[in-house]
Each structure stands twice: as C-alpha cells, then as structure tokens.
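If you are new to this repository, start here. Below is one unmodified record pulled from the training split, so you can see the exact layout before writing a loader.
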Amino acid sequence: MYKKLLLGLLAIVSLSLVPKILLAAAPSNAELLEEVEPPPRVQEGEPMEDAPEITIRKEAGKTIQEYRLHGELYMMKVTPDRGVSYYLYKEDSQSDWVNVGPNAPLAVPKWTLFRF
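And here is the target side for that same chain:
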C-alpha cells in the first residue's frame, strides 16, 4: 500500500518538474519561428497527389487489384477465390513481373561477375 502511494507521489512531483526542466534547457536568446501552414486538405472525391490509383477487376476465379502511379502500372495484388493472395511488381519499367508472396520462387541474384 505504502509503495503505491510513494510511487504515485513521486510521479506527481516528477511530472510537475518536467516543464521547469524544459524551460531551463531552452537558450535565453531563443525566438519563435514563423507559424507553419497546415498540410492541404483533401477534397472529397478528389485523389491525393501521390496516392496510387487502384483498379479492381475479377478474372477467371481471381480478383486482381492494379496499382498505378502517374498512369503507370507498377504492382498487382492477385487474390484467388481459393488460396492465399500474392503480389506481382516490377523492379523497374523494363523488367518482367516479380512474384512476392508465400509461393514466390527463390530469388536468384542477377549479378554479372565475369564476362569473356
């Protein structure tokens, strides 16, 4: 009982000292900066600037979600009617689709060590 009371009093005293410690840590020549504008609000029905566009379509027993950024398809989430979802993405704009998921094949490095 006394331990809880002592810990409670210690917590109250330490919390009352926090503002004093913070004020003492501020330099004497500190001045307030100009007020920063809040981030722009998103209008309802208007997409955010860098948010991906998501298109959902059903095809042959699976649901495919296509993720596009600035009109370029960069990732797909494939959800079969039966089974686990997996992702397909492009490493760059010229590469093939890479499978990322529970059934993904072993990723083999594509480094060129020697050329003859």
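Two things worth knowing about this chain: The chain is about 20% helix and 30% strand. Residues 53-100 form a domain with the S-adenosyl-L-methionine-dependent methyltransferases fold (CATH 2.20.130.30).
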